[in-house]
Design goal:
The chain is of the alpha+beta class. The chain has three domains: 7-96, no CATH class; 100-211, Tetrahydropterin Synthase, Chain A (2-Layer Sandwich), CATH 3.30.479; 215-283. Helix content is 33%, strand content 26%. The chain has helices spanning 75-82, 129-138, 148-167, 179-195, 213-222, 228-242, 248-253, 269-276, and strands at 7-8, 23-27, 38-41, 45-51, 54-59, 62-65, 91-96, 100-109, 115-125, 145-147, 200-210, 258-259, 262-263. The chain is elongated and about 95 Å long. The protein starts with 6 loop residues before the first strand and ends in an 8-residue tail after the last helix.
C-alpha cells in the first residue's frame, strides 16, 4: 500500500498544542512521512527534518512542503526494491522556543554540617535554529518528548555543586547574607552547562532554608535580635503554650511560677523542655 501525503503539525484534532509549558522538544510519532507532505511550524517552534538519521534542514515559523533531496526513483526500480513506496521517509522533531520554567531541589550542608534544603527555579528557552540542532543532537528523547523534568535531571548536579561551593563554608545563620552571591554562581555554572545543549538561561531564583523545622523557627527568633539562649527560651515557651501549659509566659521571661503563694521554680530551659513533653494538666 502506498504511503499517503499528510500535514505534519503539533496541533491535536481539538486545536490544542502538544508542545505545552513543560515540553522542550517533541518527536512527531509518525514514521511514514513521505515527500510531498506539508510541514507546519508554529510561531513559537522550530522544526528539524531528518531522513534516515541525517539532518536535512532546520525550519523557522511557516509551512514547508517536504521534498526528496535527490531525483525521485520511478518505475520498476521503485516497485522492485521498495514495493512501490518512496524510499525517502522522514522524521520531524519540534523544538519549543518559548520560555519554560524548570525547577531543581536538593540538600546542601552548612559549615556546621547542618542540612539545608534548596529550591532553584529558572527560565530557559531555545534561541536560534542552530541551538535547536544542538538540543536534538546532545539531549536524548524520553520516548517522544524532552520535558523540563529531563532538563532538571541533567542540570541537577551542576546546581548542587554551585550551591555547595558557598554553603559548605558558610555558617547556617549567614547563608542568606550570601544569597546574591549564590544566585550569581548558580547562573554562571548553569548557563555555561545548558549552552552545550543549545538552551539559553534567562533568570534564576534560589531559596535556601534549614531542613529541620525547629532550626527554622529558632533562626526566625534570632532574627528579632534575641540571644541564642533567649531564642531557645522563647521557642520552648511557644511550644509550652501550644500544649496549654499556663507556665509558658514564665518560661519565656525566666521568672518563677507561683501556685497558691508557693513558687514552682525559675523555669530554666532544662525544666521547660521537660514540661513540653508532659501532660498539660501536670503543669497546672
Amino acid at each position: 500500500m502506498a504511503l499517503t501525503r499528510q500535514v505534519v503539525s503539533t496541533l491535536n484534532n481539538d486545536g490544542t498544542d502538544v508542545m505545552g509549558p513543560s515540553v522542550l522538544a517533541f518527536h512527531y510519532p509518525d514514521q511514514s512521512l513521505v515527500s510531498g507532505s506539508l510541514l507546519t511550524v508554529e510561531a513559537n517552534h522550530f522544526a528539524v527534518l531528518k531522513s534516515r538519521g541525517a539532518v536535512l534542514a532546520v525550519y523557522d515559523t511557516g509551512q514547508y512542503p517536504i521534498q526528496t533531496p535527490d531525483k525521485p526513483l520511478l518505475g520498476s526500480f521503485v516497485t522492485g526494491f521498495f514495493g512501490g513506496q518512496s524510499p525517502w521517509q522522514y522524521e520531524v522533531l519540534y523544538v519549543n522556543r518559548a520560555k519554560l520554567l524548570v525547577r531543581n531541589a536538593g540538600l546542601a550542608t552548612s559549615a556546621e554540617m547542618a542540612e539545608m534544603q534548596y529550591q532553584v527555579e529558572y527560565y530557559v528557552h531555545v534561541d536560534t535554529k542552530e541551538d535547536a540542532l544542538k538540543l536534538i543532537t546532545h539531549m536524548p528523547f524520553a520516548k517522544h518528548f524532552i520535558g523540563t523534568d529531563e532538563v532538571a535531571a541533567y542540570a541537577g548536579p551542576v546546581v548542587e555543586q554551585a550551591i555547595n561551593q558557598i554553603v559548605q563554608v558558610t555558617p547556617m545563620e549567614k547563608i542568606n547574607e550570601h544569597i546574591h552571591e549564590i544566585v550569581e554562581l548558580v547562573k554562571e555554572h548553569l548557563g555555561s552547562f545548558l549552552g552545550v545543549y543549545g538552551v539559553t538561561l534567562n533568570d534564576a531564583k534560589v531559596l535556601i532554608l534549614p531542613k529541620d523545622e525547629r532550626m527554622r523557627e529558632l533562626i526566625s527568633l534570632r532574627a528579632f535580635g534575641l540571644s541564642e539562649m533567649d531564642a531557645v527560651r522563647y521557642y520552648v515557651a511557644l511550644k509550652m503554650a501550644e500544649k496549654g501549659l499556663v507556665s509558658a509566659p514564665n518560661a519565656a521571661v525566666g521568672q518563677p511560677f507561683f501556685i497558691g503563694g508557693s513558687t514552682m521554680g525559675t523555669f530554666p530551659v532544662t525544666n521547660a523542655l521537660q514540661s513540653v513533653g508532659s501532660d498539660p494538666a501536670a503543669g497546672k
